[in-house]
Amino acid sequence: MARQILDSVKSVFEFKERTKKEEDAAYKFFVEHRDTLCSPDNLGTASKIIRHQLELSTLKNERCIAMLKAAGEKQKQEELEHKKKLREFELNKFSVDSLPSLDLMRPVTPEIRDTLYEGISATGSGRSRYLKLRNRKDPEHKYNYKFPASWDYGWYFSEIVKLDNIKKPFNRSDVIKNTLFGRNGIPMEHVGEIVQKKRFV
Known about the structure:
It comes from Echinococcus multilocularis (Fox tapeworm). This is Sperm microtubule inner protein 1 C-terminal domain-containing protein. InterPro entries: SPMIP1_C. This protein has helices at 9-32, 34-37, 40-43, 45-92, 110-114, 127-136, 139-142, 157-160, 175-184, 191-200. It is mostly helical.
């Protein structure tokens, strides 16, 4: 068949009309003979295999959809429980019942507490004198237990470092050496003996 050259508008419309008539005739024939054309005998074994695979894929898709739905519901439930626990934690975080029963600071003696109401801070009495008197006390006498780790170097400081034996200018003392190394390692008074023994071995 020779190639048709659409060189004019009229030939283009004629070609479109012929193509539409052929498509309509093919569609009409398929509708009239659909039962016989789509029967299993005419389609053959290949179509049976394809149909079986489509059915299996449909079952797999349904199973996957069910699993995804169950996982989504479980995730929503876990998120709701997490939000509920977080809300309860925020409500109970600053409540008095959730705090430990042991108080951090020991109660103030009545003599020192009375200085709060004797005069004003501008004249050196009142709150100013109260804070000075409280500051004179050692931490172990003001608090029931050590709260931060930095208090290890000041806890029972008077027993570790004897203030009467300090005879240095500007009142210097080896706080770290007498507390950290003396408590966790070899006592400082035995270090010299160990060094001398190693020299003569």
